[in-house]
């Protein structure tokens, strides 16, 4: 008799457990991949950005984030249904961006992510949302005004970057190259006179030049040595999210928020930005 009671109790417990599981449902995986309202139950969305690029993606000492990419990502997330408090910004270094999307570590990436054919084989892109160009940053009183003026000068870029090598090969063969581990070191070298110019995307250079401790010291040469179409990377095949992000970017431009973000993040460097690009308009 006792054995039958125990078996019945166990069966009842099993039924209750199965019922609870069925009713509980699935709130989505923990990487915030749901692009629904985002307003219920404290769901979060994970977004990949850079942590070390002033004016674009920077983690401040107090743990907050600033920059144009951050502003764009925050605007897009809001259009997807997420308030700022529901956003978790994740550092995604250039070499790991495709893997981060493939693993589902982040829902999308806004991190000076230039659209090109090779990357488009691995991820899908929304945008572009900014057209940048390779340029030079020089001291405010520098006489460097064109690429050939770099002959006999010292040009700095980051180790592993092809920017400086392209300049030396195609424009100024007598330029002396100096490589550092990061752009902040190049900028410090420019400030001290150890180098005469720094080269990378003009948006990145403008972001550094806009920092409070550098204001007025540097200027952009205004050269357009390449076209860099910044897009928002999304996991390959997630066309629904691409469409939603594109709609958000179009709205950001039409309501003036895009222009405001450009001025706030790059204005102090007198950055001559291109007009907001049209969705899908890739400038080669």
From TrEMBL:
Q: Gene3D superfamilies from the entry?
A: Periplasmic binding protein-like II
Q: Does the keyword Signal apply?
A: yes
User: Family assignment?
Assistant: Belongs to the bacterial solute-binding protein 3 family.
- The protein's name in its UniProt record: Glutamate ABC transporter substrate-binding protein
Q: Report the domain of life of the source organism.
A: Bacteria
Q: Keyword annotations for this protein?
A: Signal, Transport
Instruction: Specify the Solute-binding protein family 3/N-terminal domain's residue ranges.
Output: 44-269
Q: Which residues form the signal peptide?
A: 1-22
Question: Does Disulfide bond show up as a keyword for this record?
Answer: no
InterPro entries assigned: Bact_solute-bind_prot3, SBP_3_CS, Solute-binding_3/MltF_N
Q: Which organism is it from?
A: Streptomyces gottesmaniae
Q: Do you know which CDD domains this protein is assigned to? A: PBP2_GluB (cd13690)
Q: By its UniProt entry, which PANTHER family does this protein fall under?
A: ABC TRANSPORTER GLUTAMINE-BINDING PROTEIN GLNH, AMINO ACID ABC TRANSPORTER PERMEASE
